[in-house]
Amino acid sequence: MRMFIPIDKQRDTNYIYQQIYEGVKENILKGKLKANEKLPSKRSLAEELSVSINSVSFGYEQLLAEGYIYTIERKGYFVEDITEFIQQEDLFEDNLPEDLREEPVNRDGWLSLSHMASDVTLFPFKEWMKCQERAIQSYSRELSEIAYSQGPYEVRDTICRMIALTRGVNCKPEQIVIGAGTQLLVGQLMELISKDSIIAVENPGYARFYQLLKKMNFDVHPVSLDDQGIRMAVIEATKANVVFVTPSHQFPTGKIMPISRRIELLNWTAKGDNRYIVEDDYDSEFKYETDNIPSLQSLDRNQRVIYMGTFSKTVLPGLRISYMVLPPDLVREYREYYANFIQYSNSLMLFTLHYFIERGEYARHVKRMNHQYEKRRKLLITELQQRFQAQIQIEDVPAGLHFLAHFDTRKSYQEIEERAVQVKLEIYSMRRFMLKENHHRGNRISLVLGFANLQEEKIAEAAERLFNVFYG
Length: 472
Known about the structure:
The chain is built from 15 helices and 16 strands.
């Protein structure tokens, strides 16, 4: 019996057995070789294809391991009786629907005013790699095992001491849960919260959290802001028992919640059972002209604040290391509910971060970036004010990696966003963050402008492109 198996001998000889394997498999799947039909002996097929017996042997052994063929001692190899596919299609046909296809993103010539980006060109990669080498040497046993669900204790202890010093957070390492991003941690947290809970979120606010909570079938209420932050009267009216806030730098407006509103929020938790505040401290490390503002959790006397922090802004966005600090009662529930949970974060990166913080490299990097980002922020604001004059109003809060700007224009949000693509300028408009009410008020457009990933020498050009978006 002869089989058609094309052999390309120009390829590496190590792959000849794979060609034999693929050829026999294709003949079987297409029905050219029937069930229980005997295959040529290894020697005869080798002679037929002018290849080595070893190549045929390796190909047959792979087919045997995968169940395409079987062997009878002293009789040879036979085709296995394989269940046929219900729907036979060309196995090599590209069946991916057109609407699912992706094209590589070409960012050449683009400038970014994104609030999500950070500048990795100034990241101390050499120091990071030294910390990684130290982690490999010191934690080889831990790296060979699956990490504890809350993350390695040493890393949690390091984070615990750091946030106590920089953010005033009161906790023990046992209260910290490390995760691959804040969104994932919020999802884990809400599995511990009663499904009958009513959730209040800031409006405008973080749309990803809002959509996540809605998909988890919680009763979610967007709550508007006043000049001090989220409105307490509206929270009371919603009957909410869980509130999501960004008090140190409200996202996206940039408002800093004053002490009076913080105390009102904390007092609210004491007035009812099972009330919690989720404090998202997403970019609190960056403050300009003033010292860092202590976290809301640092004021909590009833252990009702769940603190969320991340290294996405300060280290690398792609590192995907975030953490939450749970009150003791939720720690117990977390350990029971996630008893079989496997930590998602990369253990090597966690131990590297541990040394990066311990050696003082993290603090030095944050200090350097504060200086750099402050210069960029001031320069961008100056350039925008010079170009737009009275047509722009900037919410100038000296904190974080973005600020809110309002522009006088008769164009719609859609027109502005489409024009920005044309001039290769990445922007995010307020309509992305308005969770409920109409985002378009009169002849005014609001943008959330980030400056972290914008080099100083490109700031003037970015401002010019933005001016052309509105008035070009």
